[in-house]
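Database export, one record per block. Field names are fixed; values are copied verbatim from the stored entry.
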Amino acid sequence: MHKKIIVNKFGGGILTKDLIPVIKKRIKEQTTRGYQSIAVVSAMPKMTDYILLFLNNLKENYSAEIIKTFISDIFSKHEQIINDLILDIDLQKKTKLELLKNLENLEKDLNNKKNISNDLEDKVVAYGEKLSAIILTHYLNASGIQAQKILAEEIPIITDNNFKNANIVYQVSEVNINKKLSKIDDVVVISGFTGKTITGEITTLGRGGTDTTACFVGTALKAEKIILWKDVGGVLSADPKIVPEAETIPIISYLEAEESGKIIHDKAIQYVKMFKTPIEIASISDPKKNTKVGLIKKQEKGAKIVSLKKDLSLLLITDENIKVNDLLLMVSEIFIKYKVEITLISNTRYSLQLVANNSNGQLDKVYEELKGKVNKIEMVNASMVFLVGWFHAKDVSNFNDLLVKLKTDLLISAFYYENCYRMEAVIRTDNINKVVKAIYKKFIK
């Protein structure tokens, strides 16, 4: 590669028949300006969820017939978008033939292993991204844009063997991708979210895995920038459903993006922060609606984003007979056992306060098991509100005072720390939207 590079991440939400032509337009704009355009793609909309549902059903009732029906359904879902996008009949047939060849391999994998292990699950789930890469590559070529498909496993992007949430082995993978792409000047379409172990087993990178792939590719190739394309605009200062006057934030720092937790996924941002690679979050339909993430030469104090997490639970655990470190270890093991996410931990000498997300419906089991092991445990419904920016100690005090004034039943107060980029508090209220609006009005606008 001799050109300057732009790495694009196209998530499932924009891999639709209406927006894929806009993707082509964005890629064409980059190549016309002399850039090497790289597209990192997710699975088609809802495809990963569909595959995971199938695997869960297969665990309960394994049969060749169920597998055959699944393969047929997967092909039909992708065939429709091929028919919608690629008008040339011969090119349609070529694309479908490559899809069928991959799906034959998938069917063999499923029929050869009746035990749905984590490694097999990753191998099957990874097909969502593979099929997207095949379709987008053929579509670009059919549209007169020279493109090549390279699967993550073909580069290869090497990971550890932590299936379902694998970590990229950076130095090895960096060498591999530079070598693989060194003589390619065409548009390159890479399957996101996936990699493989040193022994050749397919892995997936966990939540936000396509972001992770794109950020790895961008940093490894020393890209001019990485663009995370969305079907909406850039980063907003608040949820517009709650605060209609919320505005697009023109620029935020790496630390602010990391603290927000919603802009770029945790693994992904570590790469760009380390190598100072510029990122944009932009609207696929209107690129002017964007937020730049990068170094800010002169950062000003103040809030930029107000956000919330609802439907959480606060567990207060007290036991004077157990040292807090031992208590934390025991509690963590039980949460891990039931795969319940801990959002926040606070502790005193003999007690723990944990904020948990019950998205998998297993929190009651955690509570019942803990109830038999500790002296006292309480669980209440809760929400979390937080501000992202750069704050003085007085901002934290004003934040807590406002929550008290709003009669939110302040369960865990915000606290100040050096270089404070995030204030968060745990509250209990029936009108969380009112609280968010009040915070926005006081701290942002």
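Remark 1: The chain has 14 helices and 16 strands.
Remark 2: The chain has a mean pLDDT of 94.
End of record.
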